[in-house]
């Protein structure tokens, strides 16, 4: 049962498209960081891989505090533009400057370089929080109907997948073209180009997308104590964190190791852009098919489908490493399986989190979209951080040397890290979901009936 009122009405196509365009620019800006920052630091700037991996993880400790606090700030915001859109503008502008600073590290060296990298990466993470939390927090505020939310999230997820596909496929080629052989300059100029689209897309979202669902709790103010209570009392939030975090770590490990794996273990770096292109198309297909899966299959099965497809990537890469390691066809199939599952999981994870917002309202009587959606931003960054940590430490342990021919031991290590480690996390995601997530069936109907009566 859906909540009655304007929020249950169909969302206009113009609103969906404008919301999707916001994700396009936003994910242009974050995909270059998650896909290439590790490579930029290790192979262009010369920062030790273990230092980079440790920095990525350390910065997330700060986010564990800052992200929920930012959610509280957004939920406490009142004004003519609502509580989400002002922070999207502020966060976009600050994060744009931070992105330029990130890819200026090649101008530094020695101890200054390590300090500069540390400060700019932490600032980038904090400013990303300011923009990303209010953006995704709008989902439950745009419709109270689960079916409308499922159709809505297709749009930003499709545009986001397109952004990752473009950056993954053409990113290194663009760096080479813009830098004319100077990769440091190329990364800096590419980040400048991305920032232009980032700001334009944010303005489109801010001017064209307006919240439609307002609860009776909109007049309430949230304190730090409320934040702790809201997060601690929501057992389904803890379940969601477990299954989404392990899934995303697994998929991001594949994406992070891919550039090293194809360049040094396979010896064909040109496979990386092909892998990214096919992966991106498959992810968009997964996002597009996601509402259909929800409509015709029991909701509880959808996460299993996403995870099994993603696991198929490791199986295909394992078979390929034995039979035909340089086969472009097998690489394409592996990438398609990984990201088709990722596309389904991305759409489902956002809708599941919107359900968790409703469940929190049902349990506590307080509706806190931004506090709870801060977890999604935190999960994206934590998954990237854990993946970066494992990549940085893993490369160091197997004896990786940048821009050199790798030893047989290092090549075997790259194969194990690219194929085996992600599979362990994906299996863990299935286990957590099966054991703990209950927001489908009777419990979801109970929550929906409660909201309808409210």
What does this structure look like?
The protein has 454 residues and is mainly alpha-helical. The protein has one domain (12-210, 222-453): MFS general substrate transporter like domains (Growth Hormone, Chain: A, Up-down Bundle). It is 81% helix and 0% strand. The chain has 15 helices and no strands. It has helices at 13-45, 49-75, 85-102, 110-137, 139-142, 146-179, 183-208, 224-233, 235-265, 271-296, 299-323, 328-364, 369-397, 408-436, 442-453. It is globular and about 65 Å long. It starts with 12 loop residues before the first helix and ends with a helix. The model is unreliable at 1-6 (pLDDT under 50).
How many distinct domains? 1
How many extended strands? 0
Question: What is the name of the CATH architecture?
Answer: Up-down Bundle
| Total count of helical runs of at least 4 residues | 15
Q: What's the rounded overall pLDDT mean?
A: 86
Structural class: mainly alpha
Shape: globular
In angstroms, what separates the terminal alpha carbons? Answer: 13 Å
Percent of residues in beta strands?
Answer: under 5%
CATH class: Mainly Alpha
Q: From N to C, what is the helix and strand string? A: HHHHHHHHHHHHHHH
Q: Quick one: biggest sheet?
A: none
What do we call the CATH topology?
Answer: Growth Hormone, Chain: A
* Model regions low in confidence, pLDDT < 50 over at least 5 residues: 1-6
CATH homologous superfamily name? MFS general substrate transporter like domains
Cα-atom radius of gyration: 21 Å
**Helicity, in percent?**
over 70%
């Amino acid at each position: 049962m859906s909540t009655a009122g304007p929020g249950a009405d169909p969302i206009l196509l113009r609103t969906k498209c404008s919301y999707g365009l916001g994700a396009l620019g936003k994910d242009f800006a974050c995909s270059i960081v998650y896909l290439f920052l590790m490579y930029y630091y290790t192979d262009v700037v010369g920062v030790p891989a273990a230092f980079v991996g440790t920095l990525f993880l350390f910065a997330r400790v700060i986010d564990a505090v800052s992200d929920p606090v930012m959610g509280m700030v957004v939920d406490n915001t009142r004004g003519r533009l609502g509580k989400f859109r002002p922070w999207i503008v502020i966060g976009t502008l600050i994060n744009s400057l931070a992105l330029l600073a990130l890819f200026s590290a090649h101008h530094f060296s020695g101890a200054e370089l390590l300090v500069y990298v540390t400060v700019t990466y932490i600032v980038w993470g904090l400013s990303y929080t300011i923009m990303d939390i209010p953006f995704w927090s709008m989902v439950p505020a745009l419709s109270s109907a689960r079916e409308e939310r499922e159709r809505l999230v297709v749009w930003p997820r499709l545009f986001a997948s397109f952004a990752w596909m473009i950056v993954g496929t053409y990113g290194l080629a663009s760096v080479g073209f813009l830098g004319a052989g100077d990769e440091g300059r190329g990364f800096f100029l590419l980040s400048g180009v991305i920032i232009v689209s980032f700001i334009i897309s944010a303005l489109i979202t801010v001017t064209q997308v307006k919240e439609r669902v307002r609860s009776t709790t909109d007049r309430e103010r949230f304190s730090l104590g409320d934040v702790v209570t809201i997060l601690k009392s929501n057992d389904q939030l803890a379940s969601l964190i477990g299954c989404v975090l392990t899934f995303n770590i697994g998929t991001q490990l594949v994406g992070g190791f891919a550039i090293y794996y194809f360049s040094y273990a396979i010896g064909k770096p040109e496979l990386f852009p092909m892998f990214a292109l096919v992966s991106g198309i498959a992810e968009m297909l997964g996002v597009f098919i996601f509402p259909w899966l929800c409509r015709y299959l029991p909701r509880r099965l959808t996460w299993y489908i996403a995870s099994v497809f993603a696991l198929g990537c490791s199986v295909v890469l394992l078979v390929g490493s034995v039979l035909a390691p340089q086969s472009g066809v097998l690489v394409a199939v592996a990438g398609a399986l990984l990201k088709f599952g990722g596309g389904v999981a991305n759409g489902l994870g956002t809708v599941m989190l919107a359900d968790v917002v409703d469940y929190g309202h049902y349990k506590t009587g307080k509706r806190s979209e931004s506090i709870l959606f801060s977890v999604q931003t935190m999960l994206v960054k934590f998954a990237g951080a854990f993946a970066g940590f494992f990549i940085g430490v893993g490369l160091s342990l197997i004896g990786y040397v940048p821009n050199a021919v790798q030893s047989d031991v290092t090549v075997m290590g790259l194969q194990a890290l690219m194929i085996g480690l992600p599979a362990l996390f994906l299996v863990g995601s299935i286990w957590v979901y099966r054991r703990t997530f209950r927001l489908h069936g009777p419990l979801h109907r109970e929550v929906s009936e409660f909201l309808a009566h409210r």
